[in-house]
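pinging the channel bc i need a second pair of eyes. not urgent but kinda urgent?? the chain im working w is below, pasted from the shared doc
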Amino acid sequence: MRHIFKLLAASVAAATICSCSSLTGYPTDAEASYAKAIEIAKKSVDTDKFKVYSLSFMEGETLSDNLFLISVKLVNRDNQAFSQSYYMTGLEPTALRDVQRTFEDPEYETTVGIDLTKLDAAQIAAQIAQAKAMLPEGHTFKSVGRYQIEEDVPAGNSAFNRNKTFGQQHTSFVVRFTEDGKEITSRADLEAATADLDSTYNPHTAQHGEYACSQCHKAHSQSVNYCTQCHSSAPVPEGWLTTTEAKKLFAL
């Protein structure tokens, strides 16, 4: 599998504004944490019925440094694709959910499948340690937000098949870190961090009350400036979408 190291600078403010999980005591850079997560995945997925084409080990609360969730995408012999999540805490798995076929329309026979028996917790921990060693001086590791293995599968809309090599599997992960002495610890700090975007439409000024970070910041798709729902002149960072663009994209 091709390994892709992704480093993401994350602010401490994300930990104080977003809260959605309880601690499980599994550090996101520890071999033992991934060994447990792999064990849960192997016990939970019926590989006689399904092939796994996406596997994610995910942090719970942002910057908690706490592995919390295992998420998989599966295809069965009838070419039906589903997603499902399992919890490190031992909570009941989520129900099978249909996958949006616009973006992913795999076929069982042509899907290679991620071999859960070959997952190596020691190798995962070593990759993360290598990425941590790449952090520039004056920066501190906080957590691994997500460790993901994905297989390229066809999309229902051929426009999303560009640059794909069907059957090829990729590994990527997100390392979250802060710059020493410049951590964001308050709403004022967060506003100041994006003040240069626009003096009128600073996205972190709570003019209309508090919103979840995920209203704009997306983990598995392009982020969206929610302000553009009403303010067409609000700034849209490079690589982001307006709400109108996002609605058109997901309606394809």
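so The longest helix spans residues 31-44. and The first strand starts at residue 2 and ends at 9. — does that match what u expected or am i reading it wrong
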